[in-house]
Amino acid sequence: MRKTLALLGFLFSIPYTYAGTSTGAAWMGMPTDAQTAALAGATGAWNEGVNSLGVNTAGLAYTKDNEVLFTQDFWAQQVSQQHLGFSHEFSPKVSVALLVDYLSFGNIDSYLISAGGSPVANGTISPNAMNLGVGCGVKLSTLFSLGGDVRMVREDLTGTAGSTAAGGFGFLMDSHGFKAGLSVANVGGQLNGADLPMKASVSASYRIALDKPTGMKTISSKELGLMAQGDVGMKDSSQTVFGVGAEYRYAEILSARVGYRGQNYGELTGLKGLTMGIGLKVKKMELSYALVTMGDFGKSNLITLTAGF
Fold it and tell me: Domain tally for the chain?
């Protein structure tokens, strides 16, 4: 159990509810799509539409018609997550969204202490968590967008279960390929006696056309996106994380992604912080894959299927 909790703390630079720490539910910072994971979480001013859930809800304003997203996360140490998101363009300026997350911490060996003080095997436990929410994105003008979300969060650590409400908001400025974003996430009550991992994020991205549209085309067939984001834990300002990423898109079909997540890794050794991935798009469907390196904890894999209709 200790190793699993340490993994979550490493992933998100948030002290999990353990040994007296006051901030819990670190899993609420897990990326919910492969694109975000491959770009080291630096997508607050990059993701658009349903991909914006969990990053910056102002991006929901860019939803086209209807979009659905499903992600399967295979994290190290048997931690896994399923995410389902749906967004709908309610009007040219307003989009709404729904999300469902289910997280499993895997099967963890349980022990009792005998009268003699020795540990005795007592089967296994299967702690888990859920996250249900609704969101909305609004285009205020061609330059500015706002978004917000409200969630019901539940966590069952087998013997200790609790639930609470949470929410957040986001802001985006979009001007000639440059975007800047500001968001606050996980504002709410306590979960199992610990504060939620509330954080503030500042992000920016820039889209570069690598060729000029010709003929009837109005969109460049080769683009490079550069992005950066800084996250500050509002319950513990020392927990500062930054991410940088780059995404190359070819002919609106193929995307190659790479990123780096910087944080305090302590004594963790091995390859860490490097993220990468790929996306393949056919018409309105895209299949994306991400690899996240976590040093001694191993590597994690995420697969996302996104569809528009």
Answer: 1
